[in-house]
Structures are given as structure tokens and as C-alpha cells.
Amino acid sequence: MLVSRGTSAGGNSGEVTPVPIPNTAVKLFRVDGTCSARSWESRSLPALVPLAVLERTFQDLAITINRKNPQSVRTGRFVGLFVAAAFSGVFSIFAAEVLSTADEASFERWGIAAVYGVAETEPEIRVNGSSAVQVPISGGGSSTVFSGADTDVTMEQNLELAGVTLTWRAKKLRYNFSVSQIRRFELEFSSGPLTNSLRARDGFRAGLGVAGSFVPVSIASVGIGWNLDYRHLRAGLDRFASGGIVTSANQDFAQDEFQAAVTAAWRWKAIQPYAGLKIQRRTTRLTDGGTKESIRGTSDGVSPMVGVEWTPILGESGIIEASFVDEKSITASWLIKF
Fold first, then answer.
1. pLDDT single digits (tens) 130-145
2. Residue 58: exposed, middle, or buried by beta-carbon count in 10 A (0-12, 13-18, 19+)?
3. Residues 97 and 131 occupy one common structural domain
4. CATH classification at residue 309
5. Which of 9, 44, 210, 309 is the most buried (most CB within 10 A)?
């Protein structure tokens, strides 16, 4: 937006001359205090520099530089006009982006997102009892899954889930609560020469988190953010497969995960890509439904991640995120802010 007249920025700030009649409201020329205090806090209009002032400034600068060469005065005027127009255009775009960012921030006090994701991790379990995990065998009886004791077993965990996440803002922090239904869950591990798997038909995952920023993201600078999350996963494992044979199982799987992440994000129009690093600690417990004995273990991981947030309209965003190395995952979500 270019202002073609007037020499002051920030809008008119005078008042109507008071009249002698009592209890008559003296109205402001500007619209201070007419919006919610949370959004504007009774501020004036944005200060945009008039085009005429910019043009004269750059013309004078060009003429001063070329004072010794009178032939370049006309060129200086054209250069001044061009630079002033370019500067005003960039400033207008920047101001519009900042204002739209403020509008969006006031829009996103609450939010709800539909989430779908798949993930592959490698939890570790310390085997400290020969009868901790048992499965039934043909002909009756049962057999232990792990043949040794006091050994560490690394498992491959595959997970598919779908759920919802509720977010809300309090001061400068954003909190979230998520709950998801497990659509597919499988644990693969080696026991002797065989590769075995335990599978679940159902389960859930719930979590809490908090996020903030060291540097807010804007069109002019890269934003640096952080988040802390806790998630609890529980699944009932009812199928055991080994060597092409599938039998029933009665195991309870529980996992607690703590995660800390730092991200860098930047904004380009309606797209906001980001990248970061997350550190995770998982505590895994496997309990036999018959013997009530359990085995457990703790594993740590570091995973880089990348993602992009697309905001086609104010108040709605689509997010895709992927992580690598210790956790291989892809998550897609659609967020509605209100």
C-alpha cells in the first residue's frame, strides 16, 4: 500500500473539538480501542512511509553523489523514483505479511487435528527370567520365547495409528493432548535361529506435550522452536508367529517415551518448511498374561526430522513430517484453528 499524500505516518490521531454540552463523547479520528485488547492493545495504524518522501530522499541522494557531473542529475531522478518504488513495494509486502501473521496468531488459541502416521523403531528389552514370556504350543503346554537369561534383545517395532490432537495456547507456550488408536502393531525379534513376531489387534497411544520458541518465525528471519513430549503406548499382543506357524499369545506391551526436539523454520507465503533434531528415550515392558512375569528395557535414540506446513486459508493447515535414523516415521495431519 503506497500513501500518495500527507507527510506523517501512523494515521490521524487528533480528536473532535469538545463541545460545551456535558456527557458528549469526544470521538477519535482513528479506531483505537475498537478491537479486542488481546489483538491490538489499542495501537495506531501501521506507519507506512509516503512514496513522495521516499522519491525525494533517493533523488537527493543520487544528485549529491553525482554533484560533480550535471549530466547525471536526470539519471539520478529516474534512479530515485525506481528505488523508492521498489523499497515501498517490499515494505508493503513485509507489512502485509506481518499483519497476516498477527491475525493468524490471534486465530489459533485452540486447535484440533486429525493425525495418521506410521513408525518403525528398535526398542531394547533386558531378558532376566526364562519364564517371562511364554506361548502355547501344539499338543498342549507352553514354551518360553527367549531361551537365555540376562541378555539384551533388540526388537523391531512397527506401528500404524490414527487419532486426534487437541492444542491450546497459554501465554507464549502451546500445549497439546493426543490420543490415537493402534491400527497395526508388530514386534519382531530373534530367538535362537528363528525370527519371531508378536502382533496386536488393538491398542492405544496417548500423549502430552508443550512447545515454545526461542526466536519467532517470520518472513524476515528463521524461527527457532522447541518442544517436549511424553507418550504412553499400550497394546495387547494376541498372536505369535515363528517359522511359518501362527499361534495365540497373551502378552501385554507397554511403552513410555520421552522426547525433546529443536527445530528451525522459515516462512514463504503459505508454506512453512522446517527441520530439526529430536532426542528420545523409551522404556519398554513386556508382561506375560499367564505367569504375570515381565521383562523390560530402556533405549535411547537421536533422529533428524524434516517437515512442511501448508496454510491454504486462515485457520487451517496441513502438515507432513518425516524422521530418520533411530526412528523412521511419516506423519500427516490436518489442523483446524479457532
1. 555 666 555 555 666 6
2. buried
3. no
4. 2.40.128.90
5. 309
Residue type, 64: T
Distance CA 217, CA 220 (A): 8
148 with 39, same domain: the answer is no
Q: Among 79, 106, 133, identify where a domain stops.
A: 106
- Residue 93, pLDDT score: 44
Average pLDDT value for the chain: 76
User: What's CA 169's distance to the chain center, in Å?
Assistant: 13
C-alpha distances in angstroms, 240 versus 142, 188, 232, 236, 244?
12, 10, 23, 12, 10
Cell of 73: 542529475
Q: How many domains does the chain have?
A: 2
**To which residue does cell 469538545 refer?**
18
More confident of the two residues 165 and 297: 165
| 194 and 114 both lie in a single domain | yes
State how far the Cα of 297 lies from the Cα of 234, in Å rounded to an integer.
15
- pLDDT number for residue 124: 86
Burial of 74 from C-beta contacts in 10 A (0-12 / 13-18 / 19+): exposed
Say how far apart CA 250 and CA 253 lie, in whole Å: 10
The string of pLDDT tens digits covering residues 22-68 is 555 544 444 445 444 444 444 445 545 555 555 566 556 555 555 55
* Same domain flag for 14 and 148: no
Q: Are 321 and 115 in contact (CB under 8 A)?
A: no
Domain residues for the domain of 9 are 1-106
CB 217 within 8 A of CB 266: yes
Position 54 scores a pLDDT of 52
pLDDT at 51: 52
**In a 10 Å sphere around its CB, with 0-12 CB exposed, 13-18 middle and 19+ buried, how is residue 26 labelled?**
exposed
Domain boundary (106, 134, 165) is at 106
Q: 61 in helix, strand or coil?
A: helix
**In a shared domain, residues 139 and 189:** yes
Which range has the worst mean pLDDT, 54-63, 82-91, 144-153, 264-273? 82-91
Residue 280: burial class (beta carbons within 10 Å; 0-12, 13-18, 19+): buried
